[in-house]
Amino acid sequence: MCVNAILEKKAGRLVILNVKEISSFADYFIICDGASDRQVQAIAAAVQERMKKCGILPLGVEGESAGKWVLLDYADVIIHIFFQPVREFYDLERLWGDVPRMEIPDETTELAALSDGI
């Protein structure tokens, strides 16, 4: 659900990190970026709207008003939506470099349902 909402807003460099083997607080990190703060905010809003329609509300939302790095906490799934230069600076993929990952090509428009429903 959330991945398709991200794809609908044309997010860049979408990566799903499987952190469940080494993390006690989440199973997946979803990381993507937007070309502007407005796109970052639009991606975050689309995810929240899609999840709310399914009756799922975030445990927490951080950074939404600034649009530089928005974090959406859905318990087992944590979504990081970055403004492109901010993503380069923090480089979360490097910090979690030892975990399995799925990189979604930018031209992907929809992702078939994953086994865990992310």
Describe how the helices and strands are arranged.
Layout: H1 2-8, E1 12-18, E2 28-34, H2 37-53, E3 60-62, E4 69-74, E5 77-83, H3 84-90, H4 92-95, E6 101-104
Parallel strand pairs: 2-5
Antiparallel strand pairs: 1-2, 1-6, 3-4, 4-5
General description of the model:
This protein is α+β, with helices and mostly antiparallel strands. It has one domain (2-94): Beta Polymerase, domain 2. The protein contains four helices and six strands, in the order αββαβββααβ. It has a six-stranded mixed beta sheet with strand order 3-4-5-2-1-6. A hairpin with a 2-residue loop joins β4 and β5. α1 packs antiparallel against α2. The radius of gyration is 13 Å and the shape is globular. The mean pLDDT is 91. It comes from Syntrophus aciditrophicus (strain SB). One of its GO terms (cellular component) is cytoplasm.
CATH class wording: Alpha Beta
N-end to C-end Cα span: 6 Å
Shape: globular
Uncertain segments: none
Instruction: Give the proportion of residues in helices.
Output: 25-40%
H/I helix tally:
4
Helix-strand topology string:
HEEHEEEHHE
Backbone CA Rg: 13 Å
Strand content: 25-35%
The strands making up the biggest β-sheet line up spatially as 3-4-5-2-1-6
Q: Tell me the CATH topology.
A: Beta Polymerase, domain 2
Kindly report the name of the CATH homologous superfamily.
Beta Polymerase, domain 2
Sheet having the most strands:
6 strands, mixed
| E-strand count | 6
> What's the number of domains?
1
CATH architecture: 2-Layer Sandwich
